[in-house]
Amino acid sequence: MEVHARYTLIGLFALAVIGAVFMFVYWIEAGGGLTDRTTYRIRFADPVAGLSKGSAVLFNGVRIGEVTHLALDDKRPSDVEVEVAVDRSAPVRSDTNVGVEFQGLAGAPTVALAGGSPNLPLLADAAREKRVLTAEKNSGQTMTQAARSVLRNIDTVVTQNAEPLRNAIASIDKFTAALARNSDKVDGIIAGLDRLTGGGSKPVARIYELAPATKFAPIAAFPSGVMQIPEPSALARLESDRLQLGGMATKSGELAQWPDLLTRVVQSALLRSFENAGYKRVLGRAPEAAKVDYQLLVDIRRFELLSQAPSKAAVELGARIMK
Questions:
Q1: Residue-wise over 102-116: b if at least 16 C-beta within 10 A, else e?
Q2: Number of neighbouring beta carbons within 10 Å of residue 135
Q3: The pTM is what?
Q4: Is pLDDT at 271 greater than 70 in this prediction?
Q5: What is d(CA 99, CA 56) in angstroms, rounded to the nearest whole number?
Q6: How sure is the predictor about 1, in pLDDT bands with cuts at 50, 70 and 90?
Q7: How high is the mean pLDDT of the chain?
Q8: What mean pLDDT is predicted for residues 14-21?
Q9: Residue 206: strand, helix, or coil
Q10: Residue 57: which residues within 8 A CB-CB, separation 6 or more?
Q11: In sequence order, which residues have a C-beta less than 8 Å from that of residue 83 and are 6 or more positions away?
Q12: Contacts 24+ apart (CB under 8 A), 67-72
């Protein structure tokens, strides 16, 4: 009997030691252990899903304590009072922001503290009944609850504006139908805007040229000496590379123009005409060492294409020979 009694005492002693170790570890982790801790009460005005005794308390992401107690308020059923034990050195002040965050893959809830004015005194120095913090509204909502709240708000807005939405959809349907009926006109308007802003394909330039004279009356003799034909003079509106038929843009966006300024085109045509007639001693621009005996000075007074026959033109030239 004495042997059995001795084993029983040894077993009870071992259980007591193990229990003491567990209690000591729990006291170290949950109650603060040997560190100097301060308790605060936090009021939540909405549910704190998943928060429980032992949940971590973070300040700016740094763990400073744990939740030690949770309770409901009989006078305010929607509120939850949470008591936390944190390091006394934590900079908790009366305006510190309080909320609930969810961390990790499992989404473990934690009490999150942040901010606070450095000018205010530390709340740890206040009396126990004054160490109270108020959490932000809806700070205890989970992501699922927040999403449901947003969806409920959207549903409310849609329900309240069902008739205007139906009218708007009907108006859009009418507008798209009108666009479909007038698609060719819309394409023309868009093409015009594209050209106005410098976009789209550039108009194709159609180059016109003056043909020199090839048929002449019999010429008995040519004057001796060298003749120069300088670039003719003309009015400012004729000093252009555009054809003078209202400026003229032909069909299909084709642009009609000369290969150079009209004055140079006329000069070139005169030079080639004299060469075709057999007078080879004619120059457009005399070299510095060349001796010029005559100058044919030409004045373009009128040069307009005929609208009824664009291949023909009404031309008026003035010419005089200078020695």
A1: eeeeeeebbbbbeeb
A2: 22
A3: 0.39
A4: yes
A5: 12
A6: very low
A7: 77
A8: 76
A9: strand
A10: 63, 64, 65, 66, 67, 84, 86, 110, 111, 113
A11: 39, 40, 41, 42, 67, 68, 69, 70, 71
A12: 67/111, 68/30, 68/31, 68/39
